[in-house]
Design goal:
Elements (H helix, E strand, L loop, with lengths): L16 E5 L2 H17 L6 E7 L3 E7 L1 H7 L8 H5 L7 H13 L5 E3 L2 H20 L3 E2 L11 E4 L3 E4 L5 H9 L1 H4 L4 E2 L1 H20 L1 H13 L4 H8 E4 L16 E5 L13 E8 L2 E2 L9 E2 H9 L5 E3 L5 E3 L1 H11 L3 H11 L19 E4 L16
Parallel strand pairs: 1-4, 5-8
Antiparallel strand pairs: 1-3, 2-3, 6-7, 9-16, 10-11, 11-12, 12-13, 14-15
Helix pairs in contact: 4-5, 5-8, 6-8, 8-9, 11-13
Length: about 375
């Protein structure tokens, strides 16, 4: 559709992409901007556009019903590339198409304050996927290291970049061995923070240089980490009360696979696994990047943690990662066992502290906040 003629019923359950506009004219400008972006990817015929007028005029874009039925039945995005003949693992435009299509098919509204934020959000998701595919690290829960030519460490500030060391370059050197010639030690959670920060910084370089300068200053002063990082930089979509569909993922989503085994979840670093959805049915594998996880192999990996625990000389519970790898490799040669484990694990997780019939699948996904100069909702904490 190219005209804003189909009204949305007030209070209708939202879905797809919603762009907030102050009036009809702004909505029409937003539509032209979005349709131009879709046209470059040959997607205009797959999209329906609507307007909603309550307190303002919003533009809504959704994937047409016939495309949904063919490409993403039951909101299963794992098989989208096969069904839509996309090669998003190797073709940049197809990765962009996969991101657009999964956003347009969303069962909840992805709301943006303008079309420019939507364009930035899609570009950041591309940056996340591209960086996650290149990232290779040594897994460690209690040790960490960074390239000394651009990073330094103090307990009170965490890892900070040396003055004059560009943040983007420092993040790439810390996570991508082609840039540094080294594999550095990370936890999976911290690794995802670096990839998210890299994507935000790369987009800021394009669309908000002032934000990039602020990020540079922040990381020269004090790192933003863990819960504070989540609060400052990320939007979370879905919840235990309103979970996203179990098979619905957008490339660039940060995803948590929970360890549903009570005993092995007591091993530090094995409470769960943080990864990115890469598209095409694959999840990132920072430790063996040439072997990205499928849903089945990730379920088997987390499942076998229960069989890889041992006690060290001090009686502390540890994970024998070599044993886990052997168990996973052996299991993946047994289709019946893979199916059994996947069926057990491919369930929404139990609430925190509960270990019952839930699986390893989380109810929410995480993605970067807005970054454009007039609409960014990133507020850096400074010297907190």
């Amino acid at each position: 559709m190219t005209a804003l003629t189909s009204p949305i019923a007030p209070h209708q359950n939202p879905q797809g992409i919603v762009i907030q506009s102050a009036n009809q004219r702004d909505a029409e400008v937003a539509q032209k901007t979005v349709l131009a972006a879709l046209k470059t990817l040959d997607l205009t015929e797959d999209v329906a556009c609507f307007t909603e007028t309550v307190s303002s005029t919003n533009l809504q874009l959704v994937l047409k019903k016939e495309r949904m039925a063919t490409w993403m039945p039951d909101l299963n995005t794992f098989d989208l590339c096969d069904r839509a003949s996309l090669k998003s693992r190797t073709a940049t435009d197809d990765l962009a198409r996969e991101i657009w299509l999964t956003l347009l098919a969303s069962p909840v509204a992805w709301v943006f304050p303008g079309p420019e934020e939507l364009i930035s959000a899609i570009r950041m998701r591309q940056f996340i996927v591209q960086a996650a595919r290149k990232t290779a690290l040594n897994f460690h829960t209690s040790e960490a290291e960074r390239p000394t030519e651009c990073w330094t460490y103090r307990e009170e500030t965490g890892f900070t970049v040396l003055p004059g060391s560009p943040l983007i370059e420092a993040l790439i050197k810390a996570t991508q061995p082609e840039a540094s010639g080294m594999l550095y030690s990370f936890s999976c959670y911290r690794a995802t923070e670096y990839i998210l920060l890299l994507a935000i910084a790369q987009e800021a370089q394009i669309s908000n240089p002032e934000l990039l300068a602020s990020l540079q200053k922040q990381w020269e002063t004090r790192a933003v980490m863990s819960g504070r990082f989540h609060e400052v930089f990320l939007h979370e979509t879905g919840s235990m009360e309103a979970p996203l569909p179990i098979s619905y993922y957008i490339p660039g989503d940060r995803v948590w696979f929970r360890n549903p085994d009570d005993a092995s979840s007591d091993v530090a670093g094995f409470e769960g696994s943080w990864v990115f959805y890469l598209g095409g049915g694959q999840f990132s594998n920072f430790w063996q990047r040439n072997k990205p996880f499928t849903l089945a192999s990730k379920c088997v990996d987390v499942y076998q943690w229960r069989n890889g625990t041992r006690r060290d000389a001090n009686g502390e519970l540890q994970m024998d990662e070599e044993l886990v790898e052997q168990l996973v490799d052996a299991t993946m040669t047994q289709p019946t066992e893979v199916e059994r484990i996947t069926q057990r694990m491919f369930r929404l997780r139990d609430p925190k502290g509960v270990y019952a019939e839930g699986g390893c699948m989380d109810t929410s996904r995480e993605s970067p906040r807005w970054v454009r100069p007039d609409t960014t909702d990133i507020v850096l904490p400074g010297m907190y």
